Amino acid sequence: MKPESAATVSPLSEKEILSRFAHLLSAQGVEGIGSTIFFLYLAWLDVSVYGEVMYAMAAGSVLMKVVQFGLYYPLVSDIGSAEHDRAPEILNRVNIIKLGLCAPCMAAILGTILYRGFSIQMSLILALISLGFALEGVADTFFADFRVRGRQDKEARIKIVASVLSYGFGFGTAALGLNPVIISLFRLISAAVKIWFGISSYVKDYSAKILTIPDWSSVWGVFRASVVFALIEILGIVYNKTNIFFLESATGVKGVAYYSAAWNLVDPVSILASEQFLGWVIFPLLAGLWWKNRQSIGRIVKSNALWLVALAFPIMFVLHTESELLIGLIYPTEYSDAVWMQKYLVWTILLSFENNLFSYVMMVAGAATTLLGFTIGATALNLLFNVVLVQPLGLEGGCLVIILTKLVMTVFTFAYCQIRFRFFKAGDFLFPGCLVGVCLGAFMLLKPLVTLQPAVVITLLIYLGVLFLVGPRFLGRLPGRQKGQ
């Protein structure tokens, strides 16, 4: 059988694009279901262990971004433009950089453990989960190769197997009452599965050694090219997670558990829009149009921004009004603080939608360095917010920190795009604003008459009915459905 070419040689049909997207979504769905079942079980089982695992997951997320170091962007570009026989060299030099970054990352984890004086149990949980995340950052190199070659189906199968085995192991060991340190091996199992199948595919497809000595000047070139993107991604994940570390100091691991209970219901919505819709659909679309049909960019950005605002509000409305019901159904009564925290955190959905859209626009427009400056400024303010708010206000301060940080980034990116490109006019946000105001007024009138749940349903039906019937006149066509694409 002839090896697959490393380069894309023909344009993709809409059906092929949707098929590839569907494969990745299926893997994401299995990951989401598995993680939800496992973490909810931990939350019911032992609040302290759940808090320790959530702390380690936050630290591991930061580590994985450091190991990935923004290398995805130059890696995809290099593989896509290279001949098949050059792909191993490209993959090897990226993996050498990533493996080189694993050591200082784990050293930083060890330093944190010693500085904070964590218990042996929490130290081992933190180290094992962080190592799993770091190794998953290495495995991502092979997945980038799959994506360029159009083998998202292979990536999806590997990720599904990894999710089933890792969360199955975690759930099984927790159900058997094994030590939490044993349970925390679930992330290492996920990483081991991904690396094993990634290496197996690499050897089969390229008949090459796993690691070969590269041209060190090319390694340095790739590292240097990825620095700006790496810093943007690393600082982004840092300012999303720092409040957890400050909360642990101020409220202990139980405080982290209560915050995580609310955050884990809100954050997946932001990820669905920012990583999967904006990152996988809109960003590639804008990147292509920037060079081929730049005049259409303004219309696409404007309609997507307006629709994201309009669609964010009903999601926020449901999570806010039904927070007591959702938290009460999902978590034990001990997590009652998560109810009011969820009402705070819903605002991060709207801010994440808009900030990620404008950040992608800046990257497409060649303003990555400016975006890095904004990210540095937001991270500095984030640390200030943590110092000023978390210790005196506790859990409330932790919620305010993430809201204010995302607000700062949204203001920065929106202001830049509006000043440079003039995407919006003064009245563009009038329709969604008025629709939200009218529907909130209707809800306040209905609630004492028909009780909470019926009022929520009626308000949603009114909002969505008006939005989809009349909205396209004011907001433009639905995202991703513009003519001529």
TrEMBL record:
The chain crosses the membrane at residues 21-42, 54-75, 96-118, 124-144, 156-175, 181-199, 219-239, 277-293, 305-332, 344-364, 371-389, 395-417, 429-446, 452-475. Keywords: Membrane, Transmembrane, Transmembrane helix. Coiled coil: none annotated. InterPro entries: PolySynth_Transporter. This is Membrane protein involved in the export of O-antigen and teichoic acid.
